[in-house]
Design brief:
By secondary structure, this protein is of the alpha+beta class. It is 25% helix and 25% strand. The mean pLDDT is 88.
Length: 365
Amino acid sequence: IQHPRLNDDNRDIFWAYVVKRSDIFGDPFKLAYDGKYTLFTVDKLHLKQVSEKADTEKFSFKTSRENKPSELSILMKFTGLVHLDFRNAEAGSLDEREKGPIQFLDILFAQGRSSPLFELSKSFKAVRNSFYCIPHGAGADMKYGIELWRGLFISARVIDGFRPAINIDVSHSCFYKRQSLINLICDILNGDEREVKFHPNQLRLNTRLQPEQLSLLISELKGVNIHTTHRNQDRIYRIKDILSTAVSMKFKRDGNEVSVAEYFHDVYGPLKYPNLPLVQVGSKSKPIYFPVELCQVANCQRYNKKLKACQTTSIIRFASTDAPTRNLKCIDMVKKSNFNSDPFLKSFGVQIKAEPMIVDGRVLP
């Protein structure tokens, strides 16, 4: 898939293309896509491929970060057959992961929790080989506007006897809370203090942040994805910078200099907090400014910044469990994943036992 957007959009683009070109793909559950460059199929696709040249097609698609569809290119080329023969793989070896059979199993087990065509995927957030359950309520609070989600780590392995197996473990990761940007700002400014000093209910028309508070927000909010509430759009923006207030930021409009606060007052209505900062999105050449009160934190957004010491301590305390409890959590997550009802696994003829393997072991002296 060739397009100027982030690779995060590849799955949405591919599955939309599958729906459009059902004449090529047929049953979508007979496909396994890795989100990048590799596609496995049950049946050979009927591509209009000439010799070694890949079949290229133009496709129009609107991502969540765009106002209108953009044209992109999709190239498909048959590369060969995958033989599920594990006799060349040593038990526990990771070197085989880049080769066909192990890579295929990894990608296949991810489909039911990552393809938007399958209803179950709406309950999970896929992050590489981990699949996090989207909580119905709030996750475990980790302060600074983030929460801890529990998920399932899935990885194919070859065990003794050259048998394929799935390594399953409980995984944890931090995500931004689903809330307004103002709430996130208050959470960041409150930090790990027990006493809440900043709360949205305390904000007033003349509320203004101190320079050190603004500096903290710049480092914490850069890169956060948001969407706005003042227009009926679901477009996602990424914060590039945090700037001065809506009252002080001015720009040219119809030849006249107006503030951001005046613009929003005339077009959408008066701002409640015109002295709070603005977020800058868009490109450097065409920046866009939004008052923080009109922004919401985008859903299912993983926290990728370095964790604070207090957050690391909380995660260790929350995630640490004894072996029997950890085993029960894994079994519970496997039941929620419902592998044996997965249409992708059924189409490829793959089954998995719901119970963990029992192996002989001994305690070393």
